[in-house]
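Why show two proteins at once? Because comparison is the fastest way to build intuition. When a single record is shown, students tend to memorize it. When two are placed side by side, the eye starts asking what differs. So, the first record is below.
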Amino acid sequence: MARATDYVLAHGLAGLSLRPLAAALDTSPRMLLYDFGSKQELVAAVLAEARRRGAARLAESLPAEAASPEDHLRAIWAWISAPERAPFVRLFFEVHADGLAHPENYPDQAEAITDWFPTLGAAFRDITTAGPDATVAPTLIMAVIRGLLFDLTTTGDRHRTDRALDRFCELLRG
């Protein structure tokens, strides 16, 4: 699973074929299908593993609990926008774009968004309300981060996206 996930992170999902994947994993396409049941189940397992890795690494990178929402936001941005995270970011956008056209291929796509809510809710507990609105702040934080990531990934304009994050932090303080 780890090696299959590494392969997909390096090569993406577009045009993923079992034969090159199997060769990279020193196995056969038949064994991949035996182990996972289908290509779609293999992709689902790889995406779940990539999300699990990302969430675990993000949680490890967050500052101490006493940190402010701004400190958490800046830590998340520094971690997720780092160049070494580019494979995760590209895969994230690739899956979501393809999922809009082919939602049947990604039945767990909503989980890619909501999986982050517990981590974000804990990091932003100062601005998160309890009860039915508990997901509003994590939704807003994730939307800002996702938008800035899309911008950075597309344009490469680090300075402008960092300044936009600075402005959002000012809004959080206000």
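Second record. Ask yourself what differs from the first in the token line.
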Amino acid sequence: MVELRFSALKPNGQTITGTLSAESYGEGKKKILALLAKNQFKLHSIDKKSTFIYKIRRGSDAPIKGEQRAFTKDEVVKALTKLGYQVISVNKFLFEWNPKPPQQEILSFVKISAELLEQKLPYSEIMTLLVNDIENKTLKETLKQINNELKKGGDSETVFLRYQTIFGKFTAYMLGLAAKSGNMTEIYRATAKFLERRMQFKKDLRSALITPMITMFVLFLAVVFYVAYIFPETAKLFVKFNIELPPMTAFTLKISDLLLDNVWLFTAMVVIPIIVLIRFFSTKNGRLFFDKMIMKVPIMGSLVHKTNIEVFCRVFYTLYSGSAESIEPIRIAAEATDNSYFEKQIKNIAIPMMIKKGAGITESFEASGVFTETAISRFHSGEETGTIKNTALQLANYYESETVFRLKNIIEMIQVGIAMVIMIVMILLTLVSAETATVSPKSPFIK
């Protein structure tokens, strides 16, 4: 996320200035040019907020070094001079790189904030404490800017959403909403729970799917290397001396020759599909297709599906205040699932049914096709009894317990399966090697 400041000239010659945040400098520049063209203003300059390294001293004291973000070098010099310092040097940081903070750092910030809010500490004091203690440079600088903007009277929701690339869209929305809700502690606690569950699920999913896939791929490469390079060096010696090869050795040598004769073809067969899939899933339609199909994968699909419902229900419970104001909580809860198909079905089917046709929550959710029969049944009961908010919390807790337990069992089963596959492969390689070791030339005296 970059912050740009622009200055422009009105048709009457008056100079105006403004600031704008964007994903990149190029995107920000496009927005500025579009805004100026719409109002028929002439662009004068665009400055990007950067980090400057300064060296100063006060009187005869030892020099002090520090960092300051600003749009220009002159701003830093003027600010330091105004504070009574003698400016020795101010230089722009040449290779500025501010990677997104780890999710663990963001979770830690939200959890600590929730705990301090429970202790009735003023929010400005909490922000000051955390800014001083957080070690991650990007998060520290972000919180410092947010704190400064809030002290100047900025709207909390607008301020936090400006940094959604740092926190994530949902987290930024929730933290911005907290200060305006009158129930700040509960929203921070709910956001921390959401982040914690999402991190844990991604970790478990990585253990269940990604790690085994990497293990199997590395095993595949090791077998290919053995068959295509190590094994032929020995086996071809026997061929050279017209020694008859046993069946397993002969078959493995044929596979080796096939691989070596068509190395580029086999490489393309492995690499091209991977590249095509990665490129396809990075598109909007590809992501939509992937998010839809991941919920239908045997065994793991139902866990992903139920986890999406859990996240939806937990966020919906936090934001829902009554049937008269249910649309916005439903929209935000759908976005929080981080599943584009789930979000699309809620936004394109459920919400329009509620707005245009006046349908109830249960009817609309059922029409979306992304809720289980259990969830629909529970929402129906909650809607009839007027306890839909508590029903959402009950569903979230129920699916959390179920998915955590089942995912743990699946991970154990997959680990056992991977161990079995590795064992079988190692046994086959050992048998081939042992068979090769038994090969011996015929005695010239034996006919």
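One difference worth noting in the second protein: The longest helix spans residues 184-240.
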